[in-house]
Amino acid sequence: MRIAQVAPLFEAVPPKLYGGTERVVAHLTDALVDQGHEVTLFAAGETQTKARLVATRAQPLRLDSRRLNSDLASHLAMIHEVRRRAEAFDVIHFHVDLIHFPFFEGMPERTLTTLHGRLDIDDLRDVYARWPSYPLVSISRSQRAPLPEANWYATVQHGMLPDQYRFSPQAQDGYLAFLGRISPEKRPDRAIEIAKAAGVPLKIAAKVDAADRVYFDTCIRPMLDHPLIEFVGEIGDAQKSAFLGGARALLFPIDWPEPFGLVMIEAMACGTPVIAWRCGSVPEVVQHGISGLIVDDIAGAVKAVHGITGLSRARVRRAFDERFTAQAMAKRYARLYWQLVHARRLRESEVA
User: Fold this and answer.
1) Which distant-in-sequence residues (6+ apart) come within 8 Å of 60 by Cβ?
2) How far apart are CA 329 and CA 333, in angstroms?
3) Could you read off the pLDDT of 307-335 as tens digits, one per residue?
4) How far apart are CA 253 and CA 296, in angstroms?
5) Contact status, residue 154 vs residue 336, Cβ threshold 8 Å
6) Inter-residue contact 2 to 90 (CB < 8 Å)
7) Angstrom distance (rounded) from CA 32 to CA 30
């Protein structure tokens, strides 16, 4: 098939450092190319891909050193370029929330939209009711809860390319890992509290966005002054296997309806089990007692820290291979693409 993938412009594809959606798009795009599809990727410059790249912006927004830029203007320009070329594709797969809806009102059946973010936002219900014809993909069943009446087409869980993550049969140093972003909903404070209570070192590899700087400075930075706690800062893909693979467990103590939680399957790919709060997508991603332990409070998490070594790291990696590879994700999406194409051709033949 001729497939367009449309990525956000905040990061390169894949991201050089932190970035979830762009990383998923990178792995999906390359897997689709490997499966023989003709793929065009609309993304920011500095992107590395097996597909044909259309870079509508020279640099990713987050890495742009210029003082003033507009993410809205950048994305509108990209959507305009996609619309201009729309007839060249069998399916246009959007990963940019809903910004494209007004542009493609005449051809929603040619599109597929994966929603990567939280949906419990007041303004969203009216917008999805206003544009009900776009086929939507959720990344977990729990993500759908705030918008059960939306035009859900399927649920497709994320996947990663297995060879980009090195399996570690043993935790090298026995520390706990926290990876991602410093923000209130990610609860790095909980991770620190768990590590201190368990008496186990914690390494925090996380970026600090400008929006979360005050939270970091006032709430988290004072908690870092402890011999068990090490703040590593933001890391890229090249460091992830060593960081995750060396850990006893990944702590995922979230306090929000996480739509998926990419870092959980990245840890699994390294053989590292996950200790995660029963929240959002966690019960759909973590198999309790197999790829990790699901907890409800600090006491349960501390107990899990000491019990997690009983899980087989080889079995954790196998759980990733069975459920979360990019190849499996690409096959699921390809089936959806074919369904859309077939339904469109059927309608066109009936009209003719």
Assistant:
1) 9, 10, 11, 12, 15, 16, 44, 45, 46
2) 6
3) 999 999 999 999 999 999 999 999 999 99
4) 9
5) yes
6) yes
7) 5
Q: H-type helices in 63-140, by residue range?
A: 71-84, 124-130
What is the rounded distance in angstroms from the CA atom of residue 274 to the CA atom of residue 265? 9
Token pair for residue 258?
């996480």
| SS3 assignment, position 40 | strand
Residues 168-227 pLDDT 10s: 999 877 899 999 999 999 999 999 999 999 999 999 999 998 889 999 999 999 999 999
Q: Which residue has the tokens 């959007």?
A: 94
| Residue-wise DSSP of 250-311 | EEE---S--S--HHHHHHHHTT--EEEES-TTHHHH--BTTTEEEESSHHHHHHHHHHGGGS
Q: Produce one character per residue of 156-185: b if its CB has 16 or more CB atoms within 10 Å, e if not.
A: bbbbbbbebbebbeebeeebbbbbbbbbee
Q: Which amino acid is at 113?
A: T
**pTM for this prediction:** 0.92
3-state SS assignment for residue 111? strand
